[in-house]
Amino acid sequence: xxxxxxxxxxxxxxxxxxxxxxxxxxxxxxxxxxxxxxxxxxxxxxxxxxxxxxxxxxxxxxxxxxxxxxxxxxxxxxxxxxxxxxxxxxxxxxxxxxxxxxxxxxxxxxxxxxxxxxxxxxxxxxxxxxxxxxxxxxxxxxxxxxxxxxxxxxxxxxxxxxxxxxxxxxxxxxxxxxxxxxxxxxxxxxxxxxxxxxxxxxxxxxxxxxxxxxxxxxxxxxxxxxxxxxxxxxxxxxxxxxxxxxxxxxxxxxxxxxxxxxxxxxxxxxxxxxxxxxxx
Amino acid sequence: xxxxxxxxxxxxxxxxxxxxxxxxxxxxxxxxxxxxxxxxxxxxxxxxxxxxxxxxxxxxxxxxxxxxxxxxxxxxxxxxxxxxxxxxxxxxxxxxxxxxxxxxxxxxxxxxxxxxxxxxxxxxxxxxxxxxxxxxxxxxxxxxxxxxxxxxxxxxxxxxxxxxxxxxxxxxxxxxxxxxxxxxxxxxxxxxxxxxxxxxxxxxxxxxxxxxxxxxxxxxxxxxxxxxxxxxxxxxxxxxxxxxxxxxxxxxxxxxxxxxxxxxxxxxxxxxxxxxxxxxxxxxxxxxxxxxxxxxxxxxxxxxxxx
Lengths: 280, 307
Known about the structure:
- Chain A is an all-alpha fold.
- Helices cover 75% and strands 0% of the residues of chain A.
- Chain A folds into two domains: 5-56, no CATH class; 61-279, MetI-like (MetI-like fold, Orthogonal Bundle).
- Chain A contains 15 helices and no strands.
- The longest helix of chain A is centred in the first third of the chain and has 32 residues, at 69-100.
- By secondary structure, chain B is mainly alpha-helical.
- Chain B has a domain at 77-263 and 288-305: MetI-like (MetI-like fold, Orthogonal Bundle).
- Chain B has helices at residues 4-13, 21-52, 68-74, 77-108, 115-127, 130-140, 147-154, 168-195, 200-208, 213-241, 245-250, 262-273, 276-284, 287-305.
- In chain B, helix 4 (77-108) packs parallel to helix 8 (168-195).
- The interface between A and B is large, with 103 and 109 residues.
């Protein structure tokens, strides 16, 4: 029954290895393709796992000087940052009300936010496309800034409501007794305590907005206004010719911002990912 | 005993106003969010229902046609194929994610130095934007340069290169495999979160009673994991059946519509041919799944929150 810790660790690594390989292989493969020279990349006689002809930066060079890739990257960063700030602000107010205040129709409001959280974007992209045309927002970054909060706010509200309920009420109630207003109590007392929850909500919102695909694909047609997810997928492929090296380089560089955030804030992401299920 | 909360309430309601000030505060906090969701989620959903019952094109007059779109679609070969594809895609991918997700959670629950980094590594497919990751998979499934073919040929399992995304059966397998790749982290990490809440004493008691590891898994782990299993399952059924990026990038629904699912067909019809009425009807065939899943989840949630 009792196993030595070393043997236990060995079993853990061995059983984890296939999952780690499965998860990371496509990314490793992207990196390899983006660094290989074309002659080797398209040489069927070569072992694809080896790099014999040396690495090259020409694919990245092409990406940054001959395509709109830098613009796409900027567009994505702008849209994701702006919508994250907006969504977290709205969600903070809503979550505070849902978690802390007693009011008429509180249950209905909570259920409403939760239901909207479950509506997938693929059900809404067509009517939203018409709505954006109506508001003259089609083919602008504003169309994304306007629509992304619709899926980010419910999620952030949900997460922050759960977080607020873990903060003891006493602290803010003494602030209220001391003459603080509700808004004052929220700003000076609750917000500092809720910081980890806010960071998680913001990271999650940013990741979701940055990765969004179908709205960006539907609403935006001008190359220079595309986000990385649609730009790399749609505009880097010209006809039947795939610039695989640049394509893989683009996909990799475009993924870096969120992967970087993820590795820096691993615990926040885990908390966010499990926010729904653990409560349920 | 009167709590402080109630003292505060008495004080605020002592002004004799019918609507309590706290209700006013609460709704002023909620108003921006509720308005936003009404305009950008509820209204579009209602509008989708409206469109689905018309013959709307991108431009031109619109006529009300009732449920005719929904009925005519059922008599269209491409649509029925798409509908069954969506069902099979969802069933296969969710089942695989469920089984592998449980295995992954058990693996990640083991204690070893550096386990935190292993957890981080297996979560990466969730973080990488799906559409971008799909490019890597398209390259890995390329009919000429597929690394998967190279490996299979070198271990002698196949004789020549196979067209993964060009052969109906293989393309269907490929899109499910890739959906499992991107969805597995969510399952694994949630099951892991559920696993660690199971008290260790239960396992010890079961062991004392002579239960082997398989019995412990079936009699202790699974029953106690049920709430988490249910939530993840319901959520994933909605997300998988409404998946878009995976299919759009990998196969565009091909070959011959064998991997076409509701979302990709709706996109094709709505954007390429501008047939908004039918496109809206197609995507609304997802609605029953969403409605049932939402209903059950709201009930589960209410039980947890004890309303």
